[in-house]
Amino acid sequence: MCIQDRDKMLESYVTPLLMSYVNKYIKNLKPSDLQLSLWGGDVVLSKLDLKLDVLEQELKLPFTFMSGHIHELRIHVPWTKLGSEPVVITINTMECILKLKDGAQDDHESGSSSTSRSVSDSSKAVAKPRRLQQAAPSDPDLPPGYVQSLIRRVVNNVNIVVNNLILKYVEDDIVLSVNITSAECYTVDDIWERAFMDITAPELVLRKVINFSDCTVCLDKRNASGKIEFYQDPLLYKCSFRTRLHFTYDNINSKIPSVIKIQTMVESLKLSITDQQLPMFIRILELIIALYYGEIGGHKEGEGEEGSSHVREAGAIIPGMDVDMESHGTSQYSSPDLYMLSEEADQGWVSWAWSFVPAIVGAEEESEESLYQQRETGGIPNNPQQHTPKDPIVSIGFYCTKASVTFKLTETQSESSYYSPQKVKSREVLCLEQEGITIEVLMMGEPFFDCQIGFVGCRALCLKGIMGVRDFEENMHRHEEDAVFFSCGDSLSSKGMTYLTNSLFDYRSPENNGVRAEFILDAANHKETYTEIAGMQRFGAFYMDYLYTMENSSSKGSQDFSVVSMEEIVPTVQETSIKRLVVGPLDVRLHSSAVHRILKMITCAMDHEYEPYCKPQREVVEESHGPATPEEISNLEEFIPTRLTCLTLLQVSVTVSMAEFNLLHTLMPVIMGCKTAAGPVYIPVFQPVRPLPSVQFQVERVNVEHSVPMYAPQLVSTVSSLSQPSDNLLHHCYAHLYLKVFGFQAGLTCQDSTGGFLPLIPIIPSFSTALYGKLIQMPSCWSKRSSVPTTECIFELPHFTVQATRAQTVLLQAICQSWTHSVASGAPLTLSESLLNEVYKAPGVKSPGPSPTLEGSVQNLELKFCSRATVKCASGTVGAVKVCARTPGSGEGVKEKLVPLIQGPSDTKELHMSRWLNEIRKPESLLAPDLLAFSVQVPQQGDDCRNSGGVLLVSVQGIAVNVDPVFCTWLLYQPHKGSSRQQQQAPGSVPLAKRREDEVSVGSTPLAKQPSNQASDYASSPVKTKTVTESRPLSIPMKVMPDTTAEESWTASEERMKELIAHAWDAVKHLTLQLELQSCCVFLPNDSLPSPSTIICGDIPGTVRSWYHNQASMPGTLVVCLPQISVFSAGHKYMEPLQELPFVVSKPILEEGDAFPWTVSLSQFSVYTLLGQQRSLSLLEPMGCTSTLAVTSHKLQSCSEGRHSFVVCLHVDLQPIHVKCSNPQVQLLYELLLSWSSTWARLQRHGILRQTSSIPEPPAGAAPSSPVRSSAGTALPDTSTCSPSADFGSPTEGDSVPAGDDSPFADTVTLEQKTSSIGGTSGKVSLWMQWMLPKVTVKLFAPDPTAKKTEICVISELEDLSASVDVQDVYTKIKCKVGSFNIDHYRCRRQPRSWKALTSSTASCPSPTPRPSPKMSVTSSPPGLSGQRAAVLPLPPSG
Q: How far are the Cα atoms of 280, 705, 790, 994 from residue 741, in angstroms, in the given order?
């Protein structure tokens, strides 16, 4: 009788328990039938329909169930062995179909989440008491203790088996299906073997295992009728994984475990994605991210408008990894205690996930009952945490030993029969492999959340062919090293099983050794333990640690929790969010195979027409709810929550190889959004190129830090309402970015036949740099605060150097052109072997001669940029610029020579006179001013842009330039023609091939045998070549063509002139200008001037001075000292060129044109020569000029486009010009001219200064047949018909220009026509220019050929010179005037030195009206002859 009573008592509690769960989810189920079946111990239910609305409410996601069926449900209850055998629930074939709720996206965009929230809140409030009434036993007699214990044993050992679980999701043309063959959940013992267990002391542990067998995921495309025409390869095929659950309880009667561990292990995870599945797969990922950030659906029931904006503003620095615990709506602007108590406020997806924890452990009623009673009383206890159950520690983990993602290209194949279905054939082209994947989540309640993700190793490799190019087929026998183009981290064989550390699958973990695990739940201790170094030691390729904490502030006891709003500014919690990401040693190799596969994936991913889930919404500026109190401001000053992201890259190497084949012309238009017509694609025959030249970039370390306020809308609305916010508050209203790069270098390398790379040849030596930027949050709130910067950037570059030989630059150019110049054949050129040997110095190959290395460096570069509502401004400095050439020694023991080419800053103030060579020169100071300092300020385009105009302040220090012949040697380098024999096989094209070989330093033919005249065809398009070849046989007269082309080119240039004038005037009409350029001294030696070892490296004046004094055979040097230039706008007072941003000028320009006139000053322009034996002779004495430039503008009323008419006035006052010349100087000038003209001719002949073209050039001996008539090329030798008066006269004086058809100038466009054309189309332009020159003196020296030791001198003097040009829309007038003209002839004996006048001739013009009559006079004393030596100059003995 006792046993029967016990069974009845068990049945009275077990049966309702099972019925409550079954009846809750299954539709049309009779409880009486279920109860009768359970009495027999087994129940079998077939063809059951699920309650879809209940599932949707439980899921709380914006999905709706289209259907849900269970084919068969079996429940086995061993009534006689309930204490030793489990209850088994078996589900056979369960199928559910989901879709996105209709209008889920619209709900979010229209802001209807509050409505759905209120409805679900009310329904939930009604449903809660009903659930509590069901759970509360009506019988006042509680079951005895042993029955309660037995029920707990039954619940803890329930086995659930699901066979053939099918889940489908449909959207648009996407069908995603998940099929699990079997899933079983059962209880295990301490060694994870199946057993019947109970929670016993002292362990108080319960373990469960869930095994999933043969999980298959398919992704297919359906047509408009909903039918899948052909099935794609499964994304995941028959993948099995197991999950271990570990529950730890505080005591034997605990309803909720204190520690929950749920961890899943997958041995092998192989994903497969075809080109048609890729857009759908990305669509699914976008859906997950949109759900993740709450961008679709109104399921976040506890959020107000601010809460949803938190989710939108959650800065997705790395999508899919930012676990925004802080977006639950319980920010520092609400109460944490109310947050803990309010269960119906399910804020965010973490709360949604957290709500399933009680359901997992089967203890939901107790907490709900206590919370419901508290809500019914309407009050909140003084210490609510005493009544709130302690949050359990939840640890979730996912571990994968090996994973791979394979990308496939598909092509459809039809069977022979018409009715047979189409088959899809796929080809694997790309694979991404990972080893040792770990994802671990640790959380305790909602105030603590941590997520760690790590990879031990990762690599990507090429598989088979791509786009018809058979580069990795089985018969190619390529090395595996050639296929791998991305590798990161280590392998599991070398790293071990560190990715499983402290997991339930680690035999060394505490749980597997009977020890209670300890967790770090303190933020400070967490940061000290899980450092970047520790993460990279455990993993090797990638490590991410995301930590979110929420701590109660000290002022929580004084708060009144009865009235709390989201807009309340008083902080009650302190939230922190830190993401740290580390990427280990990274090696990327971008060769043709890899680049084309990556771009093909991008092209396939963009081939869709899906609408985005969430369209970007316009920023709404909320009205302020009153000013914040001082107490609230002080609390904000104390702590403002921010979200910090730190990214670190370690040992990054990126190698870009020369393109072995190039079909980018078919991929790039699609990526750029152009729909190109399907044309014939020429597929090259692939052959691996070895050696393969490459460019390699290496970085030791990259640090990126990004911080953003956690609750930008509330913070910005509060701070922007303050009249004078503090710097700390303003600082937190920005998003900040710090970028630091350490040890960046670039160079050339080469891949040999074994797949390895040669040591790096540095082109850019190692340097470091830093960048800082900040961006204001919610700019619309700051539109009325013009003093607040919206954007700021600072860039610093302490030192940067580039060094290369000419051969290295030619190879770099060839590598770049192999990618940028795509041809239809797809096969770029191969390089000459001699060039590779010269660059990489192959052993055993003798170098013909050491080639110089050009080296340029920039020091202390700093740039700043600032943008405000009214102005944009920038400033910067360049400390120094140096360029030099290094020539290595030609033999052993010969030191390398250093030839400085450019030096800045350099003290050039005294270099305009040659006397600096004989004076003591101070060495270049290390504290010299910056070479360049500038500040620029531009007003923003807007209604208030007239408040101030643009400002430009520039200061450039002196620069010394040495135009050394070694630079010509560097430019004229050509690789030796060692592989040119192959190009002479095609008959009839030998001269063309020979010339092409000289022009381009790429030698042999492409891999496919083609005529040698295609050696540079990849620089142009095949269409262009075809057009040229077809137009040759046509006998069109050449005179017919130029008329249209000349007119079109003139129209185009006219339009460009319009735009140029309009843009130039807009830029300068309000411009405050201050420009200061110190003198630039240019040295032109006719032989190289290497720097002596005693001179500071790069000191050009010091080098010249050392050669001048210490070397007897100093090469002749021409010194051109360019003038100092200063330009000031009207009314501007001098300011320091480097200003703090933004800055204010003393007299801003408000009206248009007030910046003029400009004052332009040039001074100390001189030319002199340095000859051997310490001789210095002047060519042009120092001179200068002062100019005034005025521009006025008037808007034309007749012009509908708002064009202006301009009046430009320029007045120039020149200082006297004094020119001296002698035979050594003429000889030096001739040598320099001959040298540079020959260099220029060779550069043009080799094609270095122009782009190579596929159009053949005419033979050298043929006359040029230009289609455009040139007056210079067709003018007759006899020009007597053009009188001087006709050239220089004006129409107002009655003179006319002959304009007959036979005139050689009939085709030329006169200045009047050009000016009137410009004035008629773009507004009238009037130009008036005037030059005033007081005196010009020219002195020519030569030895007297008739008498030894005698010198002669000819002096020419012109005084009172003036010229003016007046250009109007109807005429052009040019006037020139010379006041007097004088020629004197002198002779001087060298011993003793005295000059004697021989003859003199003078012409004067006192007034412009009468004709001048020359006057003869004799001058007794020649001015200024003492400083010039005589030399050989053949001049006649008399004037």
A: 37, 12, 25, 47
Nearest in space to 86 (alpha carbons), one of 160, 13, 11? 160
HEC-encoded secondary structure of 1328-1395: EEEEEEEEEEEEEEEECCCCCCEEEEEEEEEEEEEEEEEECCCCEEEEEEEEEEEEEEEEEECCCCEE
Q: For residue 1227, give Cα distances in angstroms to 460, 1112, 1176, 1223, 1340.
A: 66, 19, 14, 6, 14
In degrees rounded to 5, what are phi and psi of residue 996? Answer: -65, -35
CA 504, 507, 512, 513 torsion-angle sign? negative
Q: Are 401 and 436 in contact (CB under 8 A)?
A: yes
CA distance 504 to 513: 10
Helix H or strand E segment including 544: strand 542-552
**Cβ(491)–Cβ(458) under 8 Å?**
no
Q: Give the Cα separation of 286 and 1370 in Å (integer).
A: 67
Query: What distance in Å separates the CA atoms of residue 1082 and residue 672, rounded to the nearest whole number?
Result: 47
CA 1170 to chain centre: 50
Which has the closest alpha carbon to 812: 980, 661, 1001, 979? 1001
Q: What is the mean pLDDT of each run of 10 residues along the chain (1439 residues)?
A: 60 75 81 68 86 86 90 88 88 92 60 39 38 37 66 88 94 91 94 90 90 94 85 91 93 88 94 92 89 65 36 35 40 35 38 50 41 38 47 93 93 64 80 94 90 94 81 74 89 86 90 90 92 91 94 52 40 84 93 89 87 71 64 84 94 92 81 64 73 93 95 88 88 95 94 84 95 92 84 95 92 89 62 80 60 92 91 92 85 76 88 81 70 90 60 92 90 67 32 35 34 33 34 33 55 74 78 91 89 75 84 85 91 83 75 81 92 85 92 66 75 92 90 91 74 38 37 37 36 40 41 42 74 92 81 89 89 90 83 63 54 38 41 38
- Helix, strand or coil, per DSSP, at residue 897: strand
Helix (H, G, I), strand (E, B) or coil at 641: coil
CA distance 1087 to 1114: 9
Phi, psi at 262, each rounded to 5°: -125, 115
User: How would you classify residue 172: left for phi > 0, otherwise alpha for psi between -120 and 50, otherwise beta?
Assistant: left
What's the predicted TM-score (pTM) here?
A: 0.78
Give the sign of the dihedral formed by CA 908, CA 914, CA 917, CA 920: negative
Q: ∠635-640-644 over CA atoms, to 5°?
A: 165
- Quickly count: other Cβ atoms within 10 Å of residue 1225's Cβ: 22
**Pairing state of beta strands 1325-1343 and 1204-1214?**
parallel
The residue behind tokens 């040495």 is 962
Place of tokens 């009172």: 1360
SS3 (DSSP) at 387: coil
What beta strand segments (E) does 205-258 contain? 205-221, 236-248
Helices (H), 222-276: none
Burial class (CB in 10 A: 0-12, 13-18, 19+), 455: buried
Two tokens at 633?
Answer: 């401001």
In Å, how far are 949, 952, 1161, 1163, 1210 from 1128, measured between CA atoms? Answer: 15, 10, 9, 15, 15
The answer to whether 900 and 1100 are in contact (CB under 8 A) is: yes
| 3-class SS of residue 998 | helix
Number of helical (H) and strand (E) elements in the chain, helices listed first: 32, 38
* CA-based end-to-end distance of the chain: 154
Decide the pairing of beta strands 1217-1221 and 1325-1343. Answer: parallel
